[in-house]
Amino acid sequence: MSYPILSLDVATNAACVCLVNAEGQVFTATAASGKQHSDTVLPLLQDVLKQADLTWTDLKMLALGQGPGSFTGLRIAAAMLAGINASLHLPIWGLSSLAITAMQTQSDKPVWVLEDARAGEVFAGYYQQGECLQGDACKCWSEIQEMPVGNFAAQQEPAINMEDWQRLPLQIERANAMSLLIQTLWDKTDHTAHTPWIQPVYLQLSQAEKNLQYV
Amino acid sequence: MFFMIRVYSRCYALWKPSLGVFVNILAIESSCDETAVAIYQGDVHTGQGSLIAESIASQIDTHARFGGVVPEVASREHLRVLPMLADDVMADASLAWNDIDAVAVTSGPGLMGALLVGSSYARGLALANNIPVLPIHHMEGHLLAPGIGGELPAFPFIALLVSGGHTMLIRVNGIGGYKVIGQTLDDAAGECFDKSARVLGLPYPGGPEIAKLAVHGDCKRFKLPRPMLQKDNLNFSFSGLKTAVMYAVRDLDVLDDVSRQDMAASVEAAVGEVLVKKSLKACEQEDISRLLIAGGVAANKYLRDLLNVEAGKKGISVSLPSPSYCTDNAAMIAYAAFQRLCVKACFEHVKDVNPRWSLSGLRL
Known about the structure:
By secondary structure, chain A is α/β, with parallel strands linked by helices. Chain A is about 30% helix and about 25% strand. In chain A, strands 3-2-1-4-5 form a five-stranded mixed sheet, sandwiched between helices. In chain A, strands 8-7-6-9-10 form a five-stranded mixed sheet. By secondary structure, chain B is α/β, with parallel strands linked by helices.
C-alpha cells in the first residue's frame, strides 16, 4: 500500500477532494457550498488528477470520508468511488468525517466534534491531533448538556446553547485537513484491511426503522 | 471520447455519443426497490443484439416489514449490493472493463436517493474508464422491454404502462416519440392492489398475493366499481376502488379465507376490466391495432389473459413482455439505450437524476 492516494468527502454541504502523491505533495479541490450531486463532485476529481499530472491507473489507494454526515452526500461519495474503483480494484480507506473536522481546528487540545443529526440527536466524536479518543457515536443533545464542558468544533450551529463550551474555529480548508489526517494516520493504520468498496457510516437508523423499534 | 452537444430552443441539452458499431452497454437500474445490472451487446447498424448477462437483487423482503418501500432504506440497500452485482455481471459476461463502451443508467423517474446511488456509481465508472453515461428514462425502458429477446410491434402502437407507481396509456410513434394519452388521476393500479392487499391482511407486495388468492375466488361476489369507465377520456382513478374494498371488508361479519379469496378475485376483475377496456378504447381512438403492455402489473396472469381475449375480438394484436421483464430490471435499460443508439437518437443531459422526468418530454 502506498501513495498516491485520492480521497473524497461529501459529508458536509461542500464536497472536497485531496490527492497526496508519492512525494508527499498535496493537491486539493473544493466545491462551492450548496447542492451535493455527482455533477459537482466529478470535476473536483478530474481537477486534482490534472493538478497532480496523474491518471486513474497511477493511483494506489482511494479514501472516503465515510461519515457520519449527510446521508445523501455519503452515498454519492461512496457510490462514485465504488464506480471509479470497479475497474481499478484499489483498497478504499474509510476516514471519519468527524476526524476531518477535528483536524480542521489545527488544535493540540482534545476536541469534541458535534454535528447536529436532527430529531434531537447529534453525531459526536472526540479527537486529539487525528487520534480518536472516543469513537464516533450518535447521541442525544441532552447527553451533551450533561457532559463536562470542553472544546468543540462543528460545521453547523449546535442545536443547544453551548455558551460554556469553547468553540474552536475551523482554521484550514477541509480538503487540506483530510490530507493531514491521511498523513497523520498513515503509519498507524492497517492498510491490508481495506476493501475495494465500503459503506457509509450512518450511525442513525432511518425514521421508518426507528418507528418499528417503538412498536 | 467525443460528445456532440446540441442545445434546443426549449432548453433541453441533448447530445449524441460517438461510439463504434459494435457496442457493449452496461446498464444500471436503481429507481425503486430492485437493484439491477445488465450487459447488452449489439450492432447498432443492423439493430441485432442480445442480452449477455444480468443480475437483479430484490429488496422486497427488506421492505415487507414496513408494508411498503422506504426510500432511505432502499437507498442504503442499493449501495450495499450494487458494486458486487456489477462485478458478478462482468464475470458472467467474461468481459473486461475496457470492453464496456457505455454505461446506461436509469436517471428518472423514481426515488431521488435510490436513483442517485445508481447514477453516482455510473458516473464514477464512466469517469475512470473514459466512456459516456447514457441517462435512460425508466418508463422508456419498460415500454421497449418486450423487444428483449422478442420483437417490438411496428410503430405506432399503444402502450399500457401499469405498475405500482404508474398507470398510463401512451401512443408510441417511435423511439423517443411518446405521447401520454391517459393516466391515473390518483393511485396507480399496482398501488390499488397493494392497498387492497393490506386491507385483506396480506403481505407486501400485494399484487402477487392478490393474484394467488384470486385463482380460487368468486369475482362476482363483491360488486366493486369500475372507476372512470363511463368517462369520455382515457384517464384512470383507482383510489375509490380501494375505498370500496375497505368498506366491503368492514361490512363483513367475518373476514375468512373464502371472503379473502372472493375479494381478491373481485379486485383483480375490477382493475383488469378497467385497464383492458381503456386500452382498447385508446386503440380505437388513435386508430391503431397494436397494443403493448408493460410494467410490474403486466405480469398479472388474469390481466394478460383478459387482454388477449378482448383484444383478439377486436383484431388488435397484443405484445407482452416476459413476466421477468415486467418488473424493474436493468436489461430493459440497456436495451432502451441500445435502441436509442440504433436510431441515432439524442440523449438528454440529465444533471444527476430527475425524479419527475416526464416521458412526453423525451426526444429522438
